């Protein structure tokens, strides 16, 4: 739930700042990408101080769990930074979409194990919230990081001539 709160508060704060202070300097794409980046900085950082809880989310057959948690934290932080820049945003967004799909089983496993982290302690019922939330993150990343970042079509410099 805190991830959704951070995302929405960041976007709202950026929108208000843009509207009333910066007078429309930021595009909607920029605000959406920066809001997601802020969320990812928080979630990525949590991999370093909530490591033990996150390790519990992983299946028992996996090896190097702590290292994997650290690596995914670093990935989230780097991808968040990549979202900020329009030049790297499509690549960062695509990587994040794949990442969001790949980590969903860990969230499902965490809910089934009732890991005391971010609502998973509520058990399988938590998945009624978490799966749509994951879909929102995927959509948000695609919409603000890929769809709205696409360059505008170039206008033809050729003029029609009358023959």
Summarize the structure in short.
With 163 residues, the chain is mainly α.
**In percent, how much strand structure appears in the residues?**
under 5%
CA distance, first residue to last residue: 65 Å
Which structural category fits the helices and strands?
mainly alpha
- Number of structural units classed as domains: 1
Radius of gyration: 19 Å
Topology:
Blueprint: H1 2-20, H2 28-49, H3 51-57, H4 65-84, H5 89-113, H6 127-147
Helix pairs in contact: 1-2, 2-4, 2-6, 3-4, 4-5, 5-6
Describe the structure.
With 163 residues, this protein is an all-alpha fold. It has one domain. It is 70% helix and 0% strand. The chain has 6 helices and no strands. Helix 4 (65-84) packs antiparallel against helix 5. The chain is elongated.
